[in-house]
Specification:
Length: 114
């Protein structure tokens, strides 16, 4: 949806992770066929710090992060120079986000399969 709607206007990097970055895809110019080929792996424990550090080092001009999560993991101690929008599953936790006043938390009301 977003990649197609903003063709040529926006570049996104999709990152999957657990305690480190597992995969990375660059999504640009509505490359729908490439997006459809993406296979998401993972589903174990979560550490946000190594990923925040990876973003700082590899995408230094990053404007924002949209984190899709159940919210369970460690608190981010790495300095972030970008806003984070947390999209949290309906049964997730916002405990690690409570002190991050600059961030936005969005709660999912239901999951895709419901």
């Amino acid at each position: 949806g977003m990649a197609k709607a903003y063709q040529g206007c926006i570049g996104m990097t999709l990152i999957t992770h657990e305690c480190e970055v597992v995969d990375r895809w660059d999504i640009n110019n509505g490359n729908i066929n490439e997006i459809k080929k993406i296979k998401i792996k993972g589903g174990g424990g979560t550490s946000f710090n190594p990923v925040a550090k990876w973003i700082n080092e590899n995408i230094p001009r990053n404007k924002a992060v949209i984190w899709l999560t159940d919210g369970y993991g460690d608190e981010i101690k790495e300095k972030t120079n970008y806003p984070i929008i947390w999209v949290v599953t309906k049964d997730g936790s916002d405990e690690l986000m409570k002190d991050r006043k600059q961030d936005i938390i969005v709660w999912l009301k239901k999951t895709y399969n419901e």
